[in-house]
Design goal:
This protein is an all-alpha fold. It has 2 domains: 1-66, no CATH class; 70-233, no CATH class. It has helices at residues 3-29, 34-56, 58-66, 73-101, 109-120, 126-151, 154-168, 175-192, 196-214, 218-233. It is globular, with a radius of gyration of 18 Å.
Length: 234
């Protein structure tokens, strides 16, 4: 694996932990609450992390523009749209299996936390809708999956990268949901040979989730999840 890929991974890890530092700096420098400082700090860290990663990947982006065997513009648009629905559908199937067959309670603490911060400061949606999809697809599909795919096969590379993608979200109980989405994004990458396709699909899927839940009261979301669980377990 090229040295720059290791620096990309290190930059991503630093981005995750630097939120604490940037949040503390914002809290000390401006008259804001700790929650607001944490949110603004997160946005700053992820934007800086994105800039660093894109700079490290600039040679790959140049090669991608010169690549002739990848999907055309229309192919990119078509597969991005189709991939969004594939990811949403696979997530729904995985959720059903978790609830009905594995007895795992519905709902994601990660998603709820994101929505809590998005409702407090809408600027926070930059992270789940823009920066996170770009960083995650570059690392988990372009670098990890891409490197493993050259040495093994699609299924081994996709399963390993999808498992890591699931674990990094900090919800091991929902590994099936995150893992299934990871498989879809890996398929889109191989099908089109354009990393921009799973990036667009990931962005769109996250955007749809944010829009769908933004105006819902947390109590109402919990009620709907409980009702869904009751129906599935009948």
């Amino acid at each position: 694996m090229p040295k720059r890929y290791w620096w990309v991974i290190i930059s991503y890890i630093i981005t995750q932990f630097s939120v604490i530092l940037t949040g503390s700096i914002v809290y000390s420098a401006f008259p804001v609450s700790k929650l607001e400082a944490s949110i603004y700090g997160g946005v700053i860290s992820f934007l800086l992390g994105l800039i660093v990663v894109l700079l490290l990947m600039r040679s790959d982006m140049k090669q991608g523009l010169q690549q002739r065997d990848g999907a055309s513009i229309w192919g990119i648009i078509t597969w991005s749209i189709l991939g969004t629905f594939m990811a949403i559908f696979s997530q729904g199937i995985a959720n059903f299996i978790q609830i009905a067959l594995l007895g795992i309670a519905p709902g994601s603490e990660n998603t709820q936390g994101i929505m809590t911060m998005a409702r407090a400061i809408p600027l926070f949606v930059i992270i789940p809708v823009l920066t996170a999809p770009v960083l995650e697809e570059i690392i988990f599909r372009k670098i990890i999956f891409g490197t493993l795919y050259k040495r093994t096969n699609f299924f081994i590379a996709a399963l390993i990268s999808a498992a890591l993608f699931a674990i990094i979200h900090g919800e091991p109980q929902h590994i099936l949901v995150y893992g299934t989405m990871g498989l879809v994004f890996a398929y889109l990458y191989v099908k089109t040979k354009r990393i921009i396709v799973p990036i667009f699909a990931h962005m769109a899927m996250n955007g749809i989730v944010v829009i769908a839940q933004y105006n819902l009261d947390p109590a109402e979301i919990e009620k709907q999840l409980n009702e869904l669980q009751t129906v599935l377990l009948l």
